[in-house]
Amino acid sequence: MPIGTEIERKFVLGELPQALAFARRTAILQGYLALDGDTEVRVRRTPAAAKLTIKHGGGEVRVEEEIALGTRQADALWELTEGRRLQKTRRTMRVDGLEVSVDQYFGELDGLIVAEVEFDDEQAARSFMPPAWFGREVTGQAAYANRTLSVHGLPQEGRAG
Amino acid sequence: MPIGTEIERKFVLGELPQALAFARRTAILQGYLALDGDTEVRVRRTPAAAKLTIKHGGGEVRVEEEIALGTRQADALWELTEGRRLQKTRRTMRVDGLEVSVDQYFGELDGLIVAEVEFDDEQAARSFMPPAWFGREVTGQAAYANRTLSVHGLPQEGRAG
Fold it and tell me: How many angstroms separate the most distant Cα atoms in chain B?
């Protein structure tokens, strides 16, 4: 499915919101097969399924395509992502009628909690007022892109400010 | 399907062999989505089908995985290959009981004709005696890898020797 123009805002939370403590969560393993300029090719595995995603951002062409992978194929491709993997659990909640994904990272990124909100258009994105517990906004910061996190780990506070 | 260890030898032909003049041919459009070290992600389109291929060579891990693409998805991904495409027709023939693919290139690579022979093992690859019309061997030459051809075009004779 093409996601067309994806408009989202991203925030670093100080802690997991109480409201989500017992929410359903999905374990996600994500690894990057190829990073080439504005194009990334990644494998994402959840207990339910494995997918290959090709994302291209920046410039006029924005593309996001997902392809289902069989288990054997997912295993073979996962091998190629070594050194560029991350592990997180995702919970979702609604804030102001919008779906918010809250990702809690593990492993080398332990302690990082990120909330992402997707919007239908730029107007909606601009007018969104994040609640105080959303913490610091990192929308568009390359250091907090998953591909960067998977390779370089947690941003240093100095760099992230 | 995993191809495991792919052992092949590659030759640049002076011209298309007479025997193939009327052979069945398949038009192939090939474009590279992502080139990242030893990993390449490409789209290959023929009149019959479109496929995404992830290839990883070099080092201990060799992987080649193919995934079928629907037309809409193939179109969307093809957009991302601009500047890294090539166009060829493939014909196959048998030489000494081995299947040989003869690729005739068009567009910017017009005039290039390459024969590829795949072998079951290294022993078979070493003992193969190419017929005289196979021309110059370019096995392992990066300049003749499809990914290089798609980006840099025809190798200059001086460089290719």
Answer: 45
Tokens of B111: 């005039």
pTM (predicted TM-score): 0.85
Say yes or no: B61 contacts chain A, CB-CB below 8 A. Answer: yes
Pick from A105, A109, A113: nearest CA to A138: A113
Parallel, antiparallel or unpaired: strands A136-137 and A7-12 = antiparallel
In chain B, residues with a C-beta closer than 8 Å to the C-beta of A151 are: none
Among candidate residues B32, B105, B134, B144, the one labeled active-site is B32
Q: Of B18, B14, B42, which is closest to residue B151 (Cα–Cα)?
A: B42
Number of A to B CB contacts under 8 A, please give it.
Answer: 65
How far apart (Å, rounded) are the C-alpha atoms in residues A93 and A46? 19
Residue type, A20: L
- How many residues appear in chain A? 161
ipTM: 0.82
Interchain pair B80, A2: CB under 8 A: no
Name the minimum distance, in Å, from the CA of A91 to any CA of chain B: 29
- Is A32 among the catalytic positions? yes
Instruction: Express each pLDDT in A113-141 by its tens digit.
Output: 999 999 988 899 999 999 999 999 999 89
Among B39, B67, B80, the residue with its CB nearest the CB of A80 is B39
* Nearest-angstrom CA–CA distance, A41 and A44: 10
CA distances from A18 to A15, A66, B89, B131 (A): 9, 32, 61, 74
Beta carbons within 10 angstroms of residue A156's beta carbon: 10
Kindly tell me if the per-residue pLDDT of A1 is higher than 50: no
Question: Is A39 in Cβ contact with B54 (below 8 Å)?
Answer: no
Cβ separation B65–A79 shorter than 8 A = no
- Reference B76, options A81, A65, A83; nearest CA is A65
Residue A23: which residues within 8 A CB-CB, separation 6 or more? A91, A92, A93
Spatial distance between the Cα atoms of B33 and B51, rounded to a whole number of angstroms: 12
